[in-house]
Design goal:
alpha/beta; 435 residues; 5-stranded parallel β-sheet; globular; 16 helices; 6-stranded mixed β-sheet
Length: 435
Amino acid sequence: MAKHLKSAIPAARRETEDARIRAAVESALDDISARGDAAVGEMSDRFDGFSRASFRLSESEIAALMGKVSDRDMADIKFAQTQVRAFAEAQRKTMRDLEVETRPGVVLGHKHVPVQSVGCYVPGGKFPMVASAHMSVATAAVAGVPRIVAATPPFKGAPNPAVIAAMHLGGAHEIYVLGGIQAVGALAIGTETIDPVNMIVGPGNAYVAEAKRQLYGRVGIDLFAGPTETLVIGDDTVDGELCATDLVGQAEHGYNSPAVLLTTSEILARNTLAEVERLLQVLPTAETAAASWRDYGEVILCDSHGEVLAIADRLAFEHVQVMTDRDEWYLANLKNFGALFLGPRTNVAFGDKVIGTNHTLPTRQAATYTGGLWVGKFLKTCTYQRVLTDAASAEIGAYCSRLSVLEGFIGHAEQANVRVRRYGGRNVPYGGAAG
């Protein structure tokens, strides 16, 4: 029976906060719909202290900002984008167009068509999330999206040069210095100066996630990406310092980032708890990480790896770091996760920043039904059909006629019947079922 050595705050407290955020986002989106640019500008000034005539950066502004990025930082950005592109390109190659003759004269197929315009949100108000530009912009470029629009909030009152460089190098066609609800709303709804997009992707804070949720249907979205979640699975083959470092390292994302240890070792559990407290005394971002750990951190001691597996699949966390004597067993048996990090030599930060897999991943148990952002999210798999012979049209038509009448769709039946008459030479009564 699993035992909680540390628990998170009750779910009811989280639901109250969620309701407040929902109402605020709904009001803001209604304002953008009604007043366009004026509403967007007021929100940017109020929330980010940033205002200008046009939030879109010109080519000369982009070039000037890129000139502020050091050679080392630029080289590192390019290295990371190379890894992300390479993996996205490998994934794209697995997605092949298809055409097959299912019966004589009946040809069915599908082709992968890029979404025609995508808005890529790159968080940056608190931390300039350079890596998020690779994950969304560069991946959309690999998919062949013809219009890629990138938006990021100002950092300390101005565009962050490294983030803008990553967006530009990734392949963004338009770059806006806009954050939060106002960015997502402007891109999805459109304003007098910002043309709307077909799809919104990218992580963000709770307000951004809620804005995407409310706009879903009006535009497509990648997934519901809320606060970062980290699950560490460990046993007595790993030590408390490594587990604590991986938990605290992700807890610094925000004040509400769940970080959970599942373990079969009580010694590891106790050592990890002690190491977390030690690290929070020295970590420069401890104010944020400590709040997340206090309210959302958990340590759960399990009787067996089977129990660990069951709890992990129920939690369905975004990131799952596995450091055990049976990592491959977890890879084979875990079903609900955003991304897996197997063994002590890797970690969530590698995936967040540079290794090449995408870091925009499902949260809040969305991993039970979807994976993370990848090149395939930017592609629509569209089917087509063609019938090559009279005999094939008459044969399929007869089946379609009878099945349509069975359902009461006489107009559908006549679409089939006219082909049976014309290409099969059979006299089918109007509105009847082909015999």
